[in-house]
Design a protein that fits this description.
single chain; Rossmann fold; alpha/beta; 12 helices; globular; 6-stranded mixed sheet; 4-stranded parallel sheet
Length: 311
């Protein structure tokens, strides 16, 4: 597949599935415009939600379900009703109860707000037990990754992941690459060190995370600790890591911290002119995607398409 066709292929395959995706930020002009494109291109079924669109009967139904989910945290039925009267939580409950296939938000809500709604309503996948986020970065030229496509994680959720969390982020991101692109993931656990070229606690953490990920998914092609240039440039890999299994052709990049991941994706998007799809939330029982509040119209449309593919 040529790089220029990757995004078109996301939309084409999503169109074949016709999943129902909720956009609970109806008041945002970008969301309205994106919904029109989704409808016009028949990418998925779409539902715009504002406060005025919430149905009283469903609020009653959702509040009871939410109460059962959160009563162990001291949430009362009245508090549950107030919570699900927020379009963000109402959308999440539609997905939870099977009335929709996924939701996309974040143009008007912060990442913590979207993540809380997703975690409280959809629940955390017990096999992963770590909620994280991943961007699909599509480059103008098919030079790096998988024909110019790279997966970046975590860029939005876990500030300072432990070795265990980092391993789970790697496994989640590899699964996303398998599900969305149908590719064999080649996962690089990034660091400022390549195979002992530097020392320190941060290097040790990445090395341990690599070991844990391999232990849980021995079928995965995963290597670390490794520097970025060694991960994606074959010529550099031959010099710095001649016996490495990735050979400078990683297509999934796992950053050691949220700080590194967030800065990395934004540098790549703004300076490298890459298209950033996401952040796609991972580690949940059902699909949900966040948006940067600085998102572009095309970012919203593409995120809807990928969310539909994950549903």
């Amino acid at each position: 597949m040529k790089n220029i066709d990757v995004v078109k292929d996301f939309r084409r395959r999503a169109s074949q599935r016709q999943k129902l995706i909720i956009l609970p930020e109806k008041e945002d002009a970008r969301i309205q415009a994106a919904a029109k494109i989704v409808k016009d291109e028949n990418i998925s079924r779409i539902l715009l939600l504002g406060k005025e669109d919430l149905e009283k009967a469903k609020i009653e139904k959702f509040s009871q379900v939410f109460f059962e989910l959160r009563k162990h945290k001291g949430v009362t039925l009245e508090e549950a009703k107030t919570t699900v009267s927020n379009p963000l939580y109402y959308a999440a409950m539609m997905v939870k109860t099977g009335e929709a296939d996924g939701f996309v938000a974040g143009a008007a809500n912060s990442t913590p707000d979207v993540a809380r709604a997703a975690i409280y309503c959809l629940g955390v996948d017990p096999k992963i037990n770590t909620v994280s986020s991943c961007f699909i970065m599509v480059f103008p030229e098919a030079t790096f990754g998988e024909n110019g496509v790279l997966f970046f994680a975590d860029c939005g959720i876990v500030p300072q992941p432990t070795a265990e969390q980092l391993s789970q982020i790697a496994i989640s991101s590899a699964r996303l690459a398998e599900d969305v692109l149908g590719i064999s993931p080649r996962v690089a656990m990034l660091s400022y060190s390549t195979k002992g070229s530097a020392k320190g606690d941060l290097v040790d953490k990445v090395r341990e995370a690599t070991r844990l990920a391999k232990q849980q998914r021995p079928d995965l092609l995963i290597d670390g600790e490794i520097q970025l240039d060694t991960a994606i440039v074959p010529e550099v890999a031959k010099i710095k890591d001649p016996n490495g299994i990735l050979g400078g052709r990683a297509n999934v990049l796992i950053f050691p911290s949220l700080e590194a991941g967030n800065i990395g994706y934004k540098l790549t998007q703004r300076l490298g002119k890459a298209r950033a799809i996401g952040p796609l939330l991972q580690g949940l029982n059902k699909p949900c995607s966040d948006l940067s509040r600085g998102c572009l119209l095309e970012d919203i449309v593409d995120t809807v398409a990928v969310t539909a593919l994950r549903a």
